[in-house]
Amino acid sequence: MRETLADWRPAIDEAIADLVPREIDADYLESFFGAPTYEYDPAGIQHALSTPLWDLLDRGGKRWRAVLFLVFVDGFGADPAEYLPYACIPEILHNGTIIVDDVEDEATIRRGEPALHRIYGRDIALNAGNAMYFLPLKILTQDPADLPADRRLAAYEMLMHELNRTHLGQGMDICWHNERDVRIGTEEYLEMCACKTGCLGRIVARLAAIITDQPPEVERAVAEYAELTAVAFQIGDDILDVENSLGRAGEFGKEFGNDIREGKKTLLVIHALQESDAEQAQRLQEILQADTTADDEVLEALAILEDVGSIEYARERALDLAAEARAAIADLDFDDETAWKLDEFTEFVIERDE
Amino acid sequence: MRETLADWRPAIDEAIADLVPREIDADYLESFFGAPTYEYDPAGIQHALSTPLWDLLDRGGKRWRAVLFLVFVDGFGADPAEYLPYACIPEILHNGTIIVDDVEDEATIRRGEPALHRIYGRDIALNAGNAMYFLPLKILTQDPADLPADRRLAAYEMLMHELNRTHLGQGMDICWHNERDVRIGTEEYLEMCACKTGCLGRIVARLAAIITDQPPEVERAVAEYAELTAVAFQIGDDILDVENSLGRAGEFGKEFGNDIREGKKTLLVIHALQESDAEQAQRLQEILQADTTADDEVLEALAILEDVGSIEYARERALDLAAEARAAIADLDFDDETAWKLDEFTEFVIERDE
């Protein structure tokens, strides 16, 4: 069982289609949701659930949460094919959060096409996104791998813990976004990443550990690996935006200075405000708070970030996090190929250029 | 333990405050969400979670889901006080759905004040509402009543089942609302009610049965009672709107013809379209589909509903449902007072006048 990432995608999509078919009929509804008391409306459910879900999935996405889950399962010596339905859990949860986040952020574009709420309406998109929080959790009840009760309970308790923390992280992020001043420091920022992005990573790792019955210290180690990698990924995102902006300073295109124009409180910005002198800090805040930002103001903000060493600082922290992630699982008995894949993954999240 | 409904409210609110305190601090965050990897932002969580949650709860609400849960627990011979934290589960879930529904419907008013998203912004309101889907589910993990593992697992599996059906019901409702024509019949409408409103009722009843370890047939019976009562309640809502409109025909106030102006596909409307002649049906559809509706058009629609006997039909169905609800639990060994309370409840949902 040594497939590469891309090889798994069709099987993952098939497993998702077993959970939510592309075409909804009364038989599916009855088997998944139970017999109706009166009568279901399959056409309505098609429109409210299956169509938006598959629209989003068909736009792409690497399904890497499902793949990472399968890499762990494989590394734990179990057969990934047997646990394919469980791989859908973090994948569908993730896509659900995307839909909801886009409503919250009033995003216009998602994966190169209009955000779902711009196509189906806010109500349908939101309900579909929320439904995707609960649809995959039913896999544990259906229990295709015939897991013993204690593992299913452990999985539910783990999921409730992590999904609570996800909303904590999203709450902090939204709150800071709505505040004019930058009130928080780098450690609060990293905690937000650990909660918001890290928890879905932790779900991937812990679910693989729980369903294959690993001891608690192994579950903790892979959870730490996944959280650290996710936080590094988030910082990588922040760096990428600044680097793209610096690289494209001559073009002033749409991609130029996105985060600064949005006034986003990234790790780089928070660091710069902490480390710069009073005058620079004042100016950076002004630019971030402005409703519209001219290209030369973006350049000015970027210059402050460079001057204070915030790009270097962020890169160092991301590299440290990736190293910590590798160290977290160094003592586990993974085979060489799994260990190599997991190492590779921590490098990819920082070195990617898109 | 023979308190009336109102007597329980302070204790329920105290139990909710144990789960989400009015004032958030780092100690609470650590005890509920676990130690942070870096550092929490209590002020941010206060604003993102506790403030909107308590704003909504402090506006009122009878907490009847929590109370009904306690009535069941009492009726099953257990001590309600011991299970107070579990009573918060359906109550917080319900209030979470209110916040999310208001975003989906773009509602302006909730419990006499601006809808939460109009005060805190759509992003904060939505995230708080979604957090309220997962916060209460952690009570089962905290397990204050020291339940055995099999009951906790049964509770999680039940909750996942019912919360999936809730989103199915909401999906159908939104979908029909967005459609111009009335495509569905009375049985699909009742199914939507059974899913959307009934499932939260089922959660109340089944949770009480599960945590007090009732046999499956008792759990099924109280679930049926709760679902039927909830559907009757929903129909009661539809009737109330029409009756208020007829009663206030002289005033033409804000409350006059709400459902008709919104083009709501109520049981009465669906019945009228099925039973009326082609001309009446055509006219009713026109009035429902209009973007603005004059008072005399509302009166015309109401006259069609009256003429076809739709009000009588809806009342008959609601009364039948309430009778079915009482019959569902008639064979259970409840004490007289519990039996009386549960009977009373099925009558209240139809006879109320607000």
From TrEMBL, chains A, B:
* UniProt keyword annotations, A-Z: Magnesium, Metal-binding, Transferase
PROSITE patterns registered for this protein in UniProt = POLYPRENYL_SYNTHASE_1
**Which Pfam families would you find in this protein's record?**
polyprenyl_synt (PF00348)
InterPro entries in UniProt: Isoprenoid_synthase_dom_sf (IPR008949), Polyprenyl_synt (IPR000092), Polyprenyl_synt_CS (IPR033749)
Q: Name one GO molecular function term.
A: metal ion binding
Classification via Gene3D superfamilies? Farnesyl Diphosphate Synthase
Source organism's superkingdom?
Archaea
The Gene Ontology biological process annotation of the record reads: isoprenoid biosynthetic process
Family per record: Belongs to the FPP/GGPP synthase family.
Question: What protein does this entry describe?
Answer: Geranylgeranyl diphosphate synthase, type I
Q: What is the lineage of its organism?
A: Archaea, Methanobacteriati, Methanobacteriota, Stenosarchaea group, Halobacteria
